[in-house]
From TrEMBL:
The keyword Transmembrane appears for this protein: yes
Transmembrane segments: 18-39, 89-108, 120-153, 173-199, 211-232, 269-289, 301-322, 328-347, 359-379
Key words of the record: Membrane, Transmembrane, Transmembrane helix
Protein name, per record: Glycosyltransferase RgtA/B/C/D-like domain-containing protein
Record has Membrane as a keyword: yes
Amino acid sequence: MASQSAAEPKSRIGFNHLYVAALAVLVTSWFAASLRLSVEPDEAWILLSTAETWGVRVPQTIATGVPTITTGGLHLITHGLLALFSLDILAHRTITIAASLAMLLLGFRVFRAAGSDHSLALAGTLLLAATPGILLQASLALGELMAFALLLASTAHWTWRGRHSASAALVSGLLFGLACATRVNLLAALGGFGLFVLVYHKGDWARWRRAALTVVVAILVAGTIIACHYWFGGGGLGEREATLLGAATGAHTVRTLPYLLETMEIANGHFPLLLIAGIALFWLFRRTVPRSDEGVRGNDLVALLIVIGGTMWLAWLLRAPIPHLRYLWPATACLWTGGILVLLDWFNSHRQRRTRTLLHVLVLVAFVGSLAGNVRALVVGDSVILAYQFMGMSPRYAASGQSPGFDAMVQKKQAQLVADLPATARIEALAPETAMPLVLLSGRSVYALDHVPRTGGERFLVATPADYRIWNPGPRFSDWRARYTRELFAAGGHALLRVDPSAPPAPHDRRSLGSHTW
């Protein structure tokens, strides 16, 4: 018996080392992705807007003139300070990697505080690193992962401290507000938080008052930060500003029944509704089991994460401007983390070797699945195509002539050629949205394709793989391009073309492969 009890800790220590090694592999894949993935249009758009808000001179495009307040808060502060010194994309992606590591450390601390032993907490941290879709959030200079880390901190703080005193509730509100200001779509989380308190703490007036304080403080903090961001970013209240804000927040998106069903199908493909239901039902089952103090608090945190995640999921379905993965990801991460907590709680109450073996199998499956997805993303290399593949709006096969994994290099080559063009040149794109990376990398303005022939400087047309794999130009434009442009550079779906001065107006002929058309 003594030798058996001594052997078990040794085997557990061995698995701890394996968990740490697996974590290192996943984190390394994030670093590799930050080096190899091409610059994503939203990533470039947000960084250009952030730099302009901080007074850095950037090329004037559709991304500038109106601050991108849908991403702000801590993201605005950290990336804005860095933008004063550099707009190098790798430097800005390093901030997101640091936030990703902080999220993992926070997750480990939460799992430990919920009553899991060191080995279980490491297993939970590895599962957190395998959250569906995390690679594009951890490797690009976007705000979703940073906002989720703040949201996880605020929910854990409320569960452990905020609900017990007014002063702690105020701190919970500060964290909630900063999370919402960092990604504005997290405001839906406040609604989920209020619903949770009303139902889960029914009749507990003291906790209702503290929850009200938390919500009020969160709204004031988020509102103040967003207002300052808009004010100091030079935002106006004209027609252009209203149009851009309406498009960014989804206010102008028409939601027909087919659109809602398609969006639900996309969400189900990314994070199955059956899995969400399974997490909720498993939590309900575990709630019937007598708990220790840590178990009770962990159980409460699971409930809070499930309600907040479900509320944000529903808000995404009804309000997201497009069914984009990164808008949904914080909701997915909430639900996934809640599932990890309830899973670890179950394993913690069944300490037999057989149940531990089952845990190792589950963690192994999650690790292999996540790593496979990460490696595939590195092979594809084009971040915008990867994002739209999650939405079912981009083919999964390789484009003709595309060099897998070298999109970032080709993109930089194209950007250097654009930067070397004469100062009088007018650079145009079929879809300026996808040309934002060129603006960031080249320091040159890129405009929408001019449909009226211009006099003066030469005209150049830039193309990206997304033009033909997402927005899909129609036959009239393809014919115009073949007749009136000459390729100066073409590789991997990226191209730089000189437009013939005698070219007639270019046809406005593009459409999305998804449900959105122009």
